[in-house]
């Protein structure tokens, strides 16, 4: 039996499972090799499918990338649940606590870190990740700021939380990595609260 004959040809039974197998393989290879180096043929081999099925389900490699970078949760619903009943002046702390709670889930943390690695692997991948982030996370956070600076406030919050994630989960700075999540929320929450509701003194645009 040749190498090519060991790969199933045509559509496999169970289209939903096949589609997820392709996505799982793409996430693995995009994360390990980067977007540019991970070929559709290699992804197909990892998923044990005919390469034509990638085109069938995702149209192109970029389409597969977009699907593989889809968030595994709904940020808007997450914030609605995490901030329900929270006083206006405690939203920052509650937001930090909610996000830290997500990062403490190993499977979800691994998925989010994998998305970040994929995004940093190539300009196209970063563009797709940025678009995904903007229409999900940033849009959800911007809803918390009811003024014409909502977009800026959302990006400031995101920068704070991404920095915290990198320090806690990637660089594992000891004081932050080993800190209790509630303690971190109390320490970082006021900064996030300022970004959400405090005055923003920005220079006038000429």
Task: Tag the structure with descriptive keywords.
206 residues, mainly alpha, Arc Repressor Mutant, subunit A, Tetracycline Repressor, domain 2, disordered N terminus
Describe this structure in words.
By secondary structure, the chain is mainly α. The chain folds into two domains: 4-68, Homeodomain-like (Arc Repressor Mutant, subunit A); 75-197, Tetracycline Repressor, domain 2. Helices cover 68% and strands 0% of the residues. It contains eleven helices and no strands. Helix 3 crosses helix 4 (61-68), helix 5 (75-83) crosses helix 6 (91-103) and helix 9 runs antiparallel to helix 11. The longest helix is centred in the C-terminal third of the chain and has 21 residues, at 150-170. The chain is elongated.
Summarize the structure.
The chain is an all-alpha fold and 206 residues long. It is 68% helix and 0% strand.
Tell me, briefly, the overall form.
elongated
Structural class: mainly alpha
* Rg on CA atoms, Å: 20 Å
> What's the total helix number?
11
End-to-end gap? 70 Å
List the uncertain runs. 1-13
